[in-house]
Automatic annotation (TrEMBL):
The protein's name: CCR4-NOT transcription complex subunit 6-like
Pfam families: LRR_8
Region feature (Disordered): 38-58
Species whose genome carries this gene: Caerostris darwini
Biological classification of the source: Eukaryota, Metazoa, Ecdysozoa, Arthropoda, Chelicerata
Biased composition (Basic and acidic residues): 40-51
Record-level GO cellular component terms: cytoplasm
């Protein structure tokens, strides 16, 4: 469904477009990893979404908790805390805006599987995002991100991580620039550098 919901945002500098689509696993670090054949070969289950136009009145009558997919577009700079109450969301599209940060409260969206924040002005990623263990697709490309929180290494279900177009440096950049780089290579590096975390090879011996 396609609608405008200005009350969800604090920035009204441009036209705002909200899209909602209805779509008919949290893994703790002690549980098994996904099978390798399921990693790095991920396709969105609903690539061709059908939208329905809705008036603001129709949107107001429908509980926000009912929506499972949400897209926000319109040069947005800030996100309203009302979004974090939409706990049934499985997909959130915040791409092509002017966001400079994402609040840690995004981790309240415990059912989120797809998150697209590409083509913004993000400088940092909140460590709390590492608690969103349902994520399978995380698009962070084309931002101003220079470092990644090591907590992202806990996203064991993540199959697709896009980081191109960011000013990343150090060894993480060497990993990304490797032609054979896989998502699990990045996650392995991050989890190995997570403070207080035992190396995975040691965990396997326990």
């Amino acid at each position: 469904m396609f609608c405008a919901l200005p009350y969800l945002l604090r920035d009204f500098s441009s036209s705002l477009v909200f899209r909602f689509w209805g779509l008919d696993e949290a893994v703790l670090m002690s549980k098994r990893l996904p099978r390798k054949k399921d990693r790095n070969h991920y396709e969105h289950p609903n690539p061709e979404r059908k939208t329905t136009f809705m008036s603001s009145g129709e949107v107001a009558k429908r509980p926000k908790e009912d929506y499972t997919e949400l897209a926000i577009q319109g040069n947005i700079r800030y996100l309203s805390s009302a979004i974090w109450k939409m706990t049934r969301l499985t997909s959130l599209y915040l791409n092509n805006n002017s966001l400079t940060s994402i609040p840690g409260e995004i981790s309240l969206l415990v059912n989120l599987v797809h998150l697209n924040v590409s083509y913004n002005s993000l400088r940092t990623i909140p460590p709390e995002m590492g608690e969103m263990t349902q994520l399978r697709e995380l698009l962070l490309d084309h931002n101003n991100i220079s470092t990644l929180p090591t907590q992202l290494g806990k996203l064991f279900k993540l199959c697709k991580l896009e980081l191109t177009g960011n000013p990343l440096g150090g060894h993480i950049l060497d990993i990304i620039n490797n032609p054979s780089c896989r998502t699990e290579d990045i996650l392995s590096y991050l989890i190995d550098h997570l403070p207080g975390m035992c190396p995975l090879y040691f965990l396997y011996l326990l």
